[in-house]
Amino acid sequence: MTDTTVSPSGRSTGVRTHAGDVPFSLPSIEEDDIEAVTATLRSRWLTTGGQSLEFERELADYLGVQHAVAVASCTHALEICLHYLGLPAGSRVGVPDWTFVSTALSAVHAGYQPVLIDIEEHTLNLSPVSLDAALDQGLDAVVGVHFGGSAVREDVHLLCADRAVPLVEDAAHALGASDGNGLVNGRRSVAACFSFYATKNLTSGEGGAITTENGDLADFARTFRLHGMSRDAWKRYLPGDGFLYDVNSAGIKANFPDILAALARSQLRRFSQLQARRRRLVGRYRHNLAQVRGISVVPPHADPGSADHLMVVLLPPGTSRPRVVAELHRAGISTSVHFQPLHLFRGMDKHFVLGPTGVGTADRLAQRALSLPLYPDLTDDQVDRVCDALALAVLRHAP
Which of 34, 58, 66, 130 has an alpha carbon within 20 to 30 A of 334's alpha carbon? Predict the structure, then answer.
């Protein structure tokens, strides 16, 4: 039996799921989003053009930063920023061990060597202690990940600044996040790199963006994202503007098409409402899970600056995560894991080296982390159902 998922606004999302199931993630799609995409289809201009340019302006305005360059993914955003640094081949780039593999692969694709750095237990963010030791040993750049939407500690910025080591922010989880200096936006680093993947707080299905105060980087990114060409199709096809172009660098194919930009623009117009709903859901989760013995929420206390991208818990030590996941699945609840530490991937060991402090914290927590459903169309009753099922599963399968 199937049913059509309906958003809290009462509008159908058009996504069909098993009745009663709680998916891990559903994008919030409303009629305004559909109409925006449909209007772009009717315009017959689908690749990078006016919609993409407007989205860049609107995103920069929202974040309070000079430049936003939309690209095909956050992975491409990171790779472009690392290419811009122009480091020698084989340069050492510090990345947290606890991140999606694309963080490290962006360094590999730029010709550099990832150095895996350990994390803090309570936030799963980059450990300043481990970063300090790695900087002492020698790093040429650092990619800092704002895990789950909580910004890295100020120490990460200060340590990189003190050593004059460029910091690129992997803000895939962090659109709308803030720290003591305001929104995460790349003003205090080389750049911030965002994701608009289907599961992200603002989605265009696929896509990403670079935001920065560095005009040279923005100019580089605009050409590098399209094979290094000096003029994109939008400019080449303007009446009377000519069709010739130059190739300034050996770039990549990573432009952001208008059909995706139209959806991103529509989502950005109601982003504050989407974030407010996430915050309320996280509050309900925290209230319910405070009653469950042995469960630790990440971070342990509510972060007022978090983008509330993920709802991650640590299971009690020794608990069988596969059995907990299987029991939740039988109850119709989908879960995920963020993340499997990079050092556990067999295909990555030829590309990375471990930092001087090792990755003991990431290794110790690797089998305990579990991500619970979190998205704006999730209902309060569904949150309660997830918490009840998790409590029962932990009771049965904890040592």
Answer: 34
